[in-house]
Amino acid sequence: MIWDDVGYLISKNRYSENSIIAEVFTKNHGKVSGIIFGGTSKKIKNYLQIGNKLYVNYNTKNINRIGYFKIEILKALTPLYFDHSQKLSCIASAMNMIKLLTAEAQSNKEIFNLIDNFFKILNSKNWIKKYIFWELELLKLLGYDLELKNMVEREVVDNQSNYYVSSSTEKKNVPNFLIEDNDEDIDLKSLLKGLKLVSDYLEKSILKPNNINLPSSRVHFINLLR
After folding, report:
1. In sequence order, what E strands does 43-183 have?
2. Model confidence over 86-112: pLDDT tens digits?
C-alpha cells in the first residue's frame, strides 16, 4: 500500500542509530505510524520538530506491519516559537493530546482542521483562553463533550455570578469565561482553573480508566504558566 498525504508530526522516538518511528496525524488517513530512515541525520532531523506540517509518502507491504515514511517539510511551524517557552510547551502538550486520544488509521478531517486552527490560535490575542476552548472542541469531536453550560448551577454572591457543578462528594467551581460569552481579557488565575477543569476531566473520564497518567507535557505547560 502506497499513498501520499499531508500531516502534522505528533510524536517521534528513536528506532535505531539512524532512524526514528514517527506518528503523523494526516488529513486523509488519520493518525499513522511509520519509520523514517535517516531520521537522525542533520538533513532530516531539523524538519522533525513536533508540530511541524509535513508532506508524507507512506509505503507498506503488509497492513499488519509498520510502514515507512518519506517526508518533505511544508511548514516549519514549531521553530517560530523557540523563543517562547510557554507556546512551545503548549505545542508539545496539544500534539500529545492528539496522540493519546485519537485512534490509529481513522480519518478525521475535523481534527486535522482543528490542528490547523491551533497554530492560528497561538498567534492571537488571549491565546491561552482560546486554547482551552480548543481542547474542549477536541474532546467534543472525540465524543467527550463536557456540555458545561447544561451541567452548571449558578449562584449569586455579592452581585457576582458564580458557576459550579456538584456531585454527592464534591462541589467544583467553573470559571465564568467557560459559561458566559464575552471578549474580555481573563486573568491568569481563572485560566489556570479552566485548564485544571479540563485536566481533571481528562484524568477521571478518559485517562485513568485506561491506566494512563496525565502527560508530563501537559503538567509542564501548566507549570510554565504559573
Report:
1. 53-59, 67-75, 153-157, 160-166, 171-174
2. 999 999 999 999 999 999 999 999 999
In a shared domain, residues 128 and 219:
yes
Residue 58: domain span: 2-81
Q: CA separation (Å) from 158 to 11, 154, 200?
A: 48, 13, 28
The number of domains in the chain is 2
Region for 134 from its dihedrals, namely left if φ exceeds 0, alpha if ψ lies in -120 to 50, beta otherwise: alpha
pTM of the complete model: 0.93
Q: Which residues touch 220 (CB under 8 Å, ≥6 apart)?
A: 89, 92, 93
* Eight-class DSSP state of 17: S
Work out the number of other CB atoms within 10 angstroms of the CB of residue 194.
23
How far, in Å, CA of 113 to CA of 91, rounded? Answer: 15
